[in-house]
Amino acid sequence: MLHENEIQVDEDVVRSLLKDQRPEWADLPAVFAGAGTDNTMYRLGDELLVRLPRTQGNAKALRKERTWLPRLAPYLPCRIPEPVHTGEPTATFPAAWSVYRWIDGEVAGPATVSDWATFGRDLAAAVRSLHAIDLMGAAREGELSWYRGGDLGPCDEWVSRSFQDCRDIDGLDLDLATLQQLWRSALRLPEPAGRHGWLHGDLRPANLLAHEGKLHAIIDFGGLSVGHPDAEHAPVWDLPGEARQAYWDSANLDEVTWLRARAWAIGVGISGVPYYWDTYPSFVRECLSRLTAILDDARRR
């Protein structure tokens, strides 16, 4: 359990949903395929993936994915999820749920990526393509107005609170003073300007699939929004240095955008440490690795 009011799910729940709403799939093998902070997944047969939100709030993303992913997919150089069914809430599972086409690939990491510099360039190309897609009438409002497409200032209250929560964790070996200084210095930067664009919202390695050593797919568009692109670049600190440098060179980002992206990386990472400290140790390690990479980069500059 990662969140309050989390919905319990297992294979029996999946089969119950399928029998009620897609009986033609109910007898296919259903195998647990992983879980993130927002969703639990089951592979269904060879060609499908069932995605079940951990909370009712997480289910809000399904409608925008169903609406927008088919429109975005033709313009991107890599695969993205293809919705094939949006399920209705039931007494067994009281939230909307979804089924997508299965995408072959493995989470990007040392064992699955053969050339990190190429991976960084390919990721930058995919991000550029996404940001360049016409908004097709969409605007930064409602379900497409996630906070990561906005300004840093409104986030300072919860980020500062997360720094304090980290100070209260016994045994946390992290240079919080330097990280908070970097965060506060970014708050003094000019606010982002320019046109809004499409944003994935969470390009961490868990949402990047590699196949035959290369970037193959970007998954989990639950954070899909319209806004400024600064936070979109933040997860590059989750990648090895050569991928980060290649991304920087290929994306041709100016220094101020890079510093704001770094601040977003700090804010999201520092909030994840205390929130998941007791419940999701692998995610905490991911956050700590990101924050350590930021500190290492800052010391080299």
UniProtKB/TrEMBL annotation:
<dbReference type="InterPro" id="IPR002575">
    <property type="entry name" value="Aminoglycoside_PTrfase"/>
</dbReference>
<dbReference type="Pfam" id="PF01636">
    <property type="entry name" value="APH"/>
</dbReference>
<dbReference type="InterPro" id="IPR011009">
    <property type="entry name" value="Kinase-like_dom_sf"/>
</dbReference>
<protein>
    <submittedName>
        <fullName>Aminoglycoside phosphotransferase family protein</fullName>
        <ecNumber>2.7.-.-</ecNumber>
    </submittedName>
</protein>
<feature type="domain" description="Aminoglycoside phosphotransferase">
    <location>
        <begin position="33"/>
        <end position="262"/>
    </location>
</feature>
<dbReference type="InterPro" id="IPR051678">
    <property type="entry name" value="AGP_Transferase"/>
</dbReference>
<dbReference type="GO" id="GO:0016740">
    <property type="term" value="F:transferase activity"/>
</dbReference>
<keyword id="KW-0808">Transferase</keyword>
